[in-house]
Structure formats: structure tokens, C-alpha cells
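Subject: Dicarboxylate symporter family protein

B.,
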Amino acid sequence: MNTIMKFAPFGVFALIGVTVSQFGLSSLVPLGKLVILVHITMLFFILVVLGGVARMSGVSIFSIIKILKDELLLAYSTASSESVLPKIMEKMERLGCPKAITSFVIPTGYSFNLDGSTLYQALAALFIAQMYGIHMPISSQITLMLVLIVTSKGIAGVPGVSFVVLLATLGSVNIPLEGLAFIAGIDRLLDMARTVVNVIGNSLASVVISRWEGQFDQAKAKEYIREATSKVA
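Prediction pasted inline below.
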């Protein structure tokens, strides 16, 4: 397996090289569009979906982003959510979440609350289907959604793991697995975006659960947000 992983980049480079030689540099344009689409989708999910959840929980999504700015930058650059787990738990406790909740919700969410990974897999599957000219009726899209809900659970927060899980997803909706080779070269760029969503989603989850349990310290949260905002300013 180690040997395969070492030589995999050369195989991906060769596949992309053959495609470019046959169809020209214009063949790379769809990949660039996919990268942009994934980042826009992740940003929309953070601001609209997670932002709405945060608002209902009595906090601002922008405040959470300011508090976690260093961890988000590290997670984005390394494409690994595991690298920032201890600091996230520490900051969520300072935000007003009890330790008993953060120590359970956040680590558990790293395996079962991977919003970014699910979004990525859906976009990647649809991209490959369109690339092969495969029409996906509503039934196939529903099947894809259900499979994604299952396959995105229990995966580790390390770089590239969503790409591997995508192998199981494509086969369920009759999308050629060979299509993964075309996006393997840009997977790192996609991985960076989905990691940020996973980190913010799990951090927000600890706030939501704390509110539901009636254990969220609102005064402590306001004080910590004020301190974080003043430091940024």
C-alpha cells in the first residue's frame, strides 16, 4: 500500500498530461471551475446555514470565526482538522461551553458531523457524472444523498480521506470510478475548503448542545467575544 501511495502522484500527473495533450489547456478549465464552485459552496454554507444556526443559538457566526481565526488558518493550510482539535476545545470552553460537552461533542463530531466532506462528495460526484455525460434523475440524486449521509460518517479528520470515501459513493449511483483520477490533482485544494467547514461546524455544535442543555454561559461568551474582537481591532 505504501508503494502505491508513493507512485500515485505520478499516475495522476500522467493522466492529466494525456488529457491536456489531447484536448489542450482548455481541458483544465472545468477543474478550475470545480475548485471555485466548491469554495463558493462552502462559504455559502458557513454564512447562511451555519450562520442561521448560530443566530438561533444566540451567537454570531462571525464571532466564532474571529475566535477561531488562527485554528481555521492552520486547518486550511494543512487540510487536517485533527491538528487544531485541542485548541478548538479550549476556546469553546472559554466561550462558555462546559468541558463535559466540548470534550464529547467536538471529538464525536470529527467523525459524525462532517458537513464539508459531505458537500464536497456531492459536488465531486455530480461533476464526474456530468463529465461522462451521465444524466442523474431525481431517484439517483436521492440515492446519492442517502449514501453520502452514511459514507461520510466515521471518517478520520486527516488530509485526503474524503477522496477515498468517495470511491464507495460513486459505485452506488453507477458513476465510473475512473473519473476520480481527473480530480485527484486538485483534491488538496478542495480538501482545504471542506476542512474549514468541518471545524466551524463542530465548534458551533458544541455551542448548540450547550444551549439545549441550558449550560451555555452567555455572560462568559460575551466577555470572551469582546476580548477577541478588541485584539483583532
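The chain is about 75% helix and 0% strand.

T.
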